[in-house]
Specification:
heterodimer; A: mainly alpha; B: mainly beta; Methylamine Dehydrogenase, Chain H; six-stranded antiparallel beta sheet; 8 helices; 44% strand
Chain lengths: 255, 985
């Protein structure tokens, strides 16, 4: 019976960091939730609820202290903080450029690996080619995310972003080029006509060949072929063989 | 040089190891192939039952087979197939241990060991002029410790030692001009009597000493009226013959060197006889039999030379030869055909009045009438004589009758297959009982567990045997329903006897057989021969309730102008649905590519007057044909005259009776080969039902070549008339082989190529855009295989990718032969070691799978040769791109890889044809090779890339899946438990 029960202590979302920075803490009302798979409500004795109700003033039990406004606190700016902010912006833009150039190294690496993989279609070259195609794609999808940490009103992110996109596109082009060298792109006429069914013929002409006029080969000739076969199997008569080879297949003459 | 040769050889071996071959494992034999051995229609039979451990009968057949059959079961002890030109004339048994055969018009005499069929000796008898072939093996004649055999052949009489086949003496009869009919050796004497006729008007007997061949005596008498047929001996000094008008019987008796002729009119003896009288060749002592239009009369010759008619029986009765019993008694058998049964009676010559034995045997009416009977006796436990009879039926089957029952039967009609077609089996019906499924499921699992054991090497020898048995006897392959892969089919086979057989491709059993009424001898159709089998109705989409049916076309008589006989036969039951009796003559049967609403295929039958007759004779078919007629052409090959002619349909026939299904044709073009330099020896066209997947061939560097694909190409091979004989009859300078590719719509010669110093026989196969042909090169003293590939030059410009993407090309537009497309040709020749009996090519359902040539070799085996070997683009040093394409380096000879014989250990004796049928599975093709034997297998030229192999271990797969699922559950439970423990920590 006891084994079936499961005690879970539930801590619901707590203090927001902004409040903490103000150094104002609100009395928390821990509530221990006692839950059970077999909901035995009768067994519930006590509960601590850590829910912070501060964000919803309507449900707030305790009013804000006098002089406290809920508006943003960073309206008080000083020269110190401005300098600090400039430095931060510089640092951010520098970082952003660095991030934007990162795919270039990747590109070189990829190029090397492609060169190593060779031009035949096998598991390794296919894997590399597809990773070369996939990486830029996923990077392009996450452009916003990559530059998110450096977002600043002061920092112009357009340049780095463009570079980033351009380099990734370059990587993708490299992948496509590799795909082409592997012969996996339909760029040849043969790729478009290789399964083209034969054209319909307008005319139909029927008929059967003449009654069988083939004659079975005579006996003497069988012996001849047997002798020849024997000759070719025994190594002794290399001379004879070479003589035969010299004559070569008959030259077909076109008329 | 030698190094280079060695290197290239090494390379060749390496490459050939890459080519997929059909090598089988030993335990795979019989798994998807079957082989059936036949002998053909029996001509002669000799029993060997006395003092023999195993009772046997030695037979010779019309397929030139000599075989020793087990008398108990009818199985073949041993068998030899002589060549097509080596016709067996006579067989006998000498010294009780040798089978003596005389063949090739009495010029080859062979002795075979009776128990095992090994050849003991062979003698070539070079006669001076062709004559009858006679063989006499005296039972107990001894000359200097030797028992000679007497042979008459090539107008010479020979005495040949039966021990080593040496010619003891030879007597040439060329100077005498006698045509010897009988060789007689009276018991106890040492004189051979050669009885014959000179210039059809003089009766001669020569008495020759058996020791040295000296002529002892010559007696002759002339009959002014001439004689018809043969002289039949009645006793050692009495003979009977028929005069040239077939109305007078001549009794010849020799007394004291004097010949006495006695003439009796047939009409005096038997009343109501007409001109068609003949003497039957049954040798009965003192009795002979005469056949007339209506009956057979047995006539006894008394000692005084009087003729007494003893009995008259119906004409359809078949009479056996006399069988000597003890004490000079002779017996013979008569067989009479009744309603679905036959009456066999054995009579003694001395007591003709009563039947010694009378039996009635039930007989399947699909076997037709009795054609021949051979009897043999045995001594019963009560010392009386028992008889067994070997009978040959109209359908060429062979049966042994004993004590009123059929002991065994052999369907030897299958040794003479004329044409083959296939039919699909019926679709499987729903409603399989549950218990059956459960049972089969259990069996299935059990089988697979056994197989699993086998693969894991855990099985005991008994279990291995059980596995093999399960594999070979899988009920799956011999089911009578259509399967998903299309492996199960009916092979419908027309035999020379006019019988149609349906064979199951799974195990080769005869599903049904039917003796076609239209191809049986009748008053209207006296000499019927079967010609062709065509698919008549193939229900696929519309007429699904109908069974598929086949059209059988035959002809009454050998000449082309003889009237034709047609039947339409249900492919599931073998019932003859329609029987179109003797009608117009048929020279050609053309299967048109149109079908009516009930999916009956339209056929044109061309008669000797070049009129086209349309079948089926329905208004709908006529309407379809009228609509399409302006694009329907046909051609004829006149091999003797050396002319090809092309025709088109002109309009309805100008007959007295209007017939809307008859059309006049007009000659459009003719190609006349100069008779002094070219003689047609082979013509080949593409198979009508061949499917081609694509018109483009992708070559190295992604380049494209467009194939010239046309169904209207005819390959014609001609040789100079001097070289049309056998190999060696002409010098290389005299012989010239010319091959032509002709468009049969316009008569345009697409390509012409000559091989100087080469000659036939030419065997060729045409498929897709290539033709491969086999001939003999006299200069190199070797056989060669050449290939010609045809490419369409007018499409070669279609290489712009953008245009192809947007569809701006003319590649799919219908093509006409009248647009005269430019073609380019690529060709190459290779040496080939074997001579060839037949060439065919694999065909698959969609035509994607690569092709193999199937070559029937002289040794009656079928060799599969990858088409890549006969590629005209092979070069000595292929570039990297060409190697990637799969092009092999050029070699002068084609390799013969022993593993690629698809018939593996078997021989298809007397191989005549190889038929390939696509299965539904694209990778697989069904191959049926026929001759005296039948062989069926299925091939995957590019391996079975689209299915798991039959011996795939499903149990192992199932076991792996179950194990994986169990593992997933176990690890899940374990991880849950661990999680919980972590949480409590």
């Amino acid at each position: 019976m006891v084994r079936n029960r499961k005690f879970v202590i539930w801590y619901r979302s707590t203090l927001s960091p902004s409040r903490l920075s103000e150094g104002r803490s609100r009395p928390l009302r821990p509530r221990l939730l006692y839950q059970s798979r077999i909901s035995l409500r009768s067994l519930r004795k006590w509960a601590v609820d850590f829910t912070d109700n501060s964000s919803t003033p309507s449900s707030r039990d305790i009013p804000d202290p006098p002089g406290f406004t809920r508006a943003s606190h960073d309206q008080d700016d000083s020269t110190m903080s401005r300098q600090k902010k400039d430095a931060e912006a510089n640092w951010k833009s520098q970082k952003a450029w660095e991030v934007a150039q990162a795919p270039f190294k990747n590109l070189l690496m990829m190029g090397f690996m492609m060169w190593m993989a060779g031009n035949t279609v096998h598991l390794f070259s296919i894997g590399i080619t597809f990773s070369a195609l996939w990486q830029p794609l996923s990077a392009l999808q996450g452009v916003g995310k990559v530059f998110n940490p450096y977002r600043d009103n002061k920092v112009d992110l357009v340049g780095p972003k463009l570079l980033f996109v351009a380099l990734n596109l370059g990587g993708m082009l490299l992948g496509v080029w590799k795909l082409n060298t592997l012969g996996l792109l339909p760029t040849h006429a043969s790729d478009w006509v290789s399964s083209l069914s034969p054209a319909h013929e307008i005319e139909f002409s029927g008929g059967v060949a003449a009654p069988d006029s083939r004659t079975p080969p005579p006996r003497a000739d069988q012996f001849g072929s047997i002798v020849l076969a024997l000759l070719s199997y025994t190594g002794h008569s290399q001379r004879a063989l070479q003589k035969l080879h010299h004559t070569g297949p008959s030259r077909s003459r076109k008329r | 040089m030698a190094m280079a040769m060695k290197l290239s050889l090494l390379l060749l071996f390496f490459l050939s190891s890459l080519i997929p071959t059909f090598s089988l494992f030993e335990d795979q034999v019989g798994f998807m192939d079957w082989h059936q051995r036949y002998i053909g229609k029996v001509k002669h039979a000799v029993f060997q039952t006395q003092k023999a451990g195993r009772k046997r009968v030695v037979v010779s057949t019309e397929e030139n087979v000599i075989a020793s059959l087990d008398l108990r079961r009818g199985e073949i002890f041993w068998r030899h197939v002589l060549g097509a030109n080596d016709v067996v004339d006579k067989i006998d048994i000498a010294l009780g241990k040798y089978v003596i055969t005389l063949s090739s018009e009495g010029s080859i005499l062979r002795a075979w060991n009776l128990p095992d069929g090994q050849m003991v000796w062979e003698s070539f008898l070079s006669g001076s002029k062709p004559s009858k072939a006679l063989l006499t093996v005296p039972a107990n004649l001894k000359v200097d410790l030797d028992s000679p055999i007497f042979v008459y052949g090539g107008a010479c009489l020979y005495a040949i030692s039966s021990i080593d086949g040496e010619i003891l003496w030879k007597k040439d009869f060329t100077a005498e001009g006698i045509d010897v009919h009988q060789l007689l050796l009276p018991d106890g004497s040492d004189v051979v009597h050669a009885v014959g006729v000179t210039d059809l008007s003089q009766f001669d007997t020569y008495e020759i000493d058996v020791r040295n061949g000296e002529l002892l005596k010559h007696v002759s008498a002339s009959f002014p009226d001439g004689i018809y047929g043969e002289i039949l001996p009645i006793s050692s000094d009495k003979f009977v013959a028929l005069d040239a008008r077939r109305s007078v019987l001549v009794l010849i008796s020799i007394k004291d060197g004097q010949i006495n002729l006695q003439q009796t009119h047939v009409s005096d003896l038997v009343h109501g006889s007409s001109g068609n009288t003949a003497i039957l060749p049954s040798k009965l002592s003192g009795i002979f039999s005469v056949i007339t239009d209506t009956f057979i009369a047995f006539i006894k010759v008394t000692n005084e030379g009087k003729l007494d008619v003893m009995e008259k029986v119906d004409k359809m009765v078949v009479v056996s030869d006399a069988l000597p019993l003890s004490e000079g008694e002779q017996a013979f058998a008569l067989v009479q055909h009744g309603e679905s049964k036959i009456h066999l009676s054995v009579r003694l010559v001395h007591d003709m009045s009563s039947n010694h034995l009378k039996e009635t045997v039930k007989m399947d009416h699909e076997r037709g009438f009795v054609h021949k009977i051979f009897i043999n006796n045995y001594v019963r436990t009560d010392r009386s004589h028992g008889f067994r009879a070997l009978i040959v039926m109209e359908d060429h089957s062979l049966l042994l009758l004993q004590q009123g029952e059929i002991v065994w039967s052999r369907d030897d009609g299958l040794a003479s297959v004329i044409d083959v077609t296939t039919s699909e089996l019926p679709v499987e019906k729903l409603g399989v009982s549950v218990s059956k499924v459960e049972h089969s499921l259990f069996e299935w699992l059990k089988g697979h567990m056994l197989k699993l054991k086998g693969t894991l090497m855990l099985a005991t020898p008994d279990e291995v045997a059980a596995i093999q048995k399960i594999r070979l006897q899988s009920s799956e392959k011999s089911k009578m329903t259509r399967d998903h892969n299309g492996f199960r089919r009916l092979l419908i086979v027309l035999t020379r006897a006019g019988k149609l057989f349906a064979l199951h491709t799974g195990d080769g059993r005869v599903v049904w057989s039917s003796l076609l009424q239209s191809l049986r001898k009748s008053d209207k159709c006296t000499d019927p021969i079967g010609l062709k089998l065509h698919q008549w109705q193939i229900p696929h989409h519309h007429a699904l309730d109908n069974n598929p049916s086949v059209l059988v076309v035959g002809r009454c008589g050998l000449s082309l102008s003889a009237s034709s006989a047609m039947s339409i036969v249900d492919a599931y039951t073998g019932k003859e649905l329609h029987n179109m009796g003797p009608a117009h003559s048929t020279v050609q049967v053309i299967s048109l590519p149109f079908s009516d609403s009930t999916e009956q295929q339209l056929h044109l039958l061309i008669d000797a007057d070049k009129r086209a007759h349309l079948y089926p004779r329905t208004p709908e078919a006529a309407e379809i044909f009228q609509r399409e007629s302006e694009n329907v052409y046909w051609y004829s090959v006149e091999a003797e005259a050396g002319i090809l002619r092309g025709y088109a349909v002109k309009g309805s026939c100008n007959l007295e009776v209007p017939n809307e299904y008859c059309f006049e044709t007009r000659n459009l073009w003719s190609i006349v080969f100069p008779s002094e330099s070219e003689k047609i020896i082979a013509t080949v066209t593409r198979k009508a039902n061949e499917v081609i997947h694509t018109q483009a061939k992708v070559i190295a560097d992604e380049d494209v070549m467009y194939k010239y694909i046309s169904k209207n190409i005819l390959f014609v091979a001609t040789v100079s008339p001097k070289a049309s004989g056998p190999i060696g009859s002409a010098t290389p300078d005299e012989s010239l082989l010319v091959v032509h590719l002709v468009d049969t719509v316009t008569g345009r010669i697409l390509h012409r190529m000559s091989h100087s110093g080469s000659q036939g026989p030419v065997h060729a196969v045409l498929s897709e855009n290539w033709v491969v042909y086999h001939y003999f090169n006299l200069r190199a003293h070797r056989y060669e295989i050449s290939v010609i590939e045809i490419y369409d030059q007018s499409r070669a410009e279609n290489k712009d990718v953008l245009k192809l993407i947007v569809g701006k090309h003319n590649l799919t537009a219908p093509v006409s032969s009248y647009s005269r497309p430019e073609v380019t040709i690529k060709s190459q020749s290779y040496f080939f070691t074997h001579s060839v009996k037949a060439i065919s090519v694999t065909s698959t359902a969609k035509g994607i799978t690569s092709k193999h040539l199937l070559i029937g070799t002289l040794g009656d085996k079928v060799l599969a040769l990858d088409k890549r070997f006969v590629d005209p683009r092979r070069s000595l040093n292929p570039t990297q791109a060409e190697k990637e394409e799969g092009l092999l380096p050029l070699t002068d000879a084609l390799p013969i890889i022993p593993q690629s014989y698809i018939t593996h250990a078997f021989k298809v004796e007397g191989l005549r044809g190889i038929e390939t049928v696509p299965a539904k599975l694209e990778s697989t093709t069904l191959v049926f090779a026929y001759g005296v034997d039948l062989f069926f297998t299925r091939l995957a030229p590019s391996r079975t890339y689209d299915s798991l192999t039959e011996d795939f271990n499903y149990a192992l797969l199932l076991l792996t899946i179950v194990a994986l699922v169990v593992a997933i559950f176990v690890t899940w439970v374990l991880s849950e438990r661990k999680d919980l423990q972590d949480k409590w920590r």
